[in-house]
Amino acid sequence: MLNHILGGGLSSRLFQEIREARGLAYSIGSDRSAYDDAGTLAVSVGTAPGHAHEVLDLLHAELDRLGAEGITPRELEVAKGHLRADLLLSLEDSGSRMSRIGSGLLLFGSVLTTEELLGRIAAVTADQVRTVAERVLTGPRTLAVVGPFVGSDFS
After folding, report:
1. What is the pTM of this model?
2. Mean pLDDT (the chain, rounded)
3. Which of 150, 151, 8 is nearest to 78 (CA)?
């Protein structure tokens, strides 16, 4: 839920603020990776070098705000709808089905049924997302930059 609200779709905070409202990036989004004992939440942005610092300032402000304030009821409902649709559409692709089965076994030790997954999506609350946001977004951050920059540009 947090990933979708932050940068996982066209309705996400980062897409709406940085791309649509300000026109500072052609592409922007977030993605998460889950592992047995760790995970990542990464944001990627394609922007002009002259906009890099402004985009980073806006990105940090949004991460801080989301970590401190949580999400709105509307954001939660949109994210739930997206995740439900994504799950159901993934049933039509054998690669996605196998990936879901493998991830379930590796991460949880079992494979949840579609009904169980839909139930878990429906059960998520805004307070739960806020708790995750506080834990994930308020910690240390790592920056990787590709482009015509020197290290001191981002010290």
Report:
1. 0.90
2. 93
3. 8
Instruction: Give the chain's end-to-end CA distance (angstroms, integer).
Output: 32
Length of the chain: 155
- Position 149 scores a pLDDT of 87
Q: In the 8-state DSSP scheme, what is residue 139?
A: S
pLDDT digits (tens, 9 = 90+) for 24-39: 999 999 999 988 788 8
Q: Domains of the chain by range and CATH?
A: 2-154 (3.30.830.10)
Burial (CB < 10 A; 0-12, 13-18, 19+), residue 96, is: middle
pLDDT attached to residue 86:
93
Give the residue among 15, 97, 103, 115 at the shortest CA–CA distance from 62: 15
80, two tokens: 């739930």
Q: Which long-range contacts (CB under 8 A, 24 or more apart) does 33-42 make?
A: 34/103, 34/107, 35/107, 36/106, 36/107, 41/2, 41/3, 41/6, 41/136, 41/137
